[in-house]
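User: Okay, second chain of the day. Same drill as before: sequence in, structure tokens out.
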Amino acid sequence: MELTKKLNRSMLYALVPLLMASFFSCEAIYEDLEPCETEFRVKFRYDRNMKNADAFSSEVESVNLWLFTPEGKLVWSGAGAGEELKTEDYAMTLPVVPGEYDMIAWCGLPQDETFALAADNVAVREDLMLSVRKKNDAAGDYMDAEMHRLYHGMQRVTLKEAEQGGWVDATLPLTKNTNVIRVMLQHLDGSAVNKEDFDFFIEATNGVMNYDNNILGSDKFTYRGWMKSTVSASFDKDNDASDREGDNSGLVRAETGNDGVQTEVNGLLAERTVGRLMADRRPALVVRRNTDDTDIIRIPLTDYLLMVKGNYNSHMTDQEYLDRQDDYTLTFFLDGDNKWYMGAGIYVNSWRVVPPQDTDF
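Assistant: Same drill. Structure tokens below.
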């Protein structure tokens, strides 16, 4: 028994140096390894829309991103486009050291001459001021080119090393800066509207967007170059009569055939894309009758668009609503002299709005 205890004690004494050597050798091994690295990435999100759903992968076609110091000096810039943006887990790698940065993005910048940055070689935040390229004639400055979908994002972010390394993701939310405006003209009696008889304009001051997406200046220019098309729809009078009762869409002004069976709706549709709409600015929508060069419609556009905000989400601010809603249709009715019949009201996205008697502003 005593012999066994002595043997166990001797073995324990022999193992202690081995265990200590093993501990120090393991420590030496880990000291030789490189520390775990952190990769910084940014993901983009476009859910500032009426559906509150991220539509980045389905809408945004290109990304231009710049990182600045808090003082506004450029640190890094990168770009992405095409199919890679459509993947659900798309992220742009940021090859920068840990720190605080201002991320600014213009997404959807076209390759044509629709917009112009303040500088070809960006060095400071102010170089990211974006302007609409305008033309000029005797009537003044104007834009007649199609505007591609444009998005802006800006956010300050602090990038920190992860203790175990790996990815550290930041998210940059986007705001859409372009809107589709459609104007429908219909005769009260349902007769066709000649597209050569009318032209459409928006007089605006939103031609210069700062790096923070605020609109700068008050220089007026005109959106021209509207796409115009005549439209019509036919439906069976007997079958659809009950369905049309109480319809407030504003589109049921019809032409009845001699046999009393077919009812036809006719109209002139004009549409184009415009820049960011601001709640504190009042662009004018103008419809001109070309037969005598008379403006038959002139209204403060954003005032009328905001009249139907309550029918969507009354909790939004006016600016949030204008940023989220990017597609508008306004319907006007004309009398036999091609004058605006104000008594029928205006339909904005299918909601009826009765204009005041005095529409000057």
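Confidence is low (pLDDT under 50) at residues 3-8, 18-33, 241-254.

User: Thanks, on to the next one.
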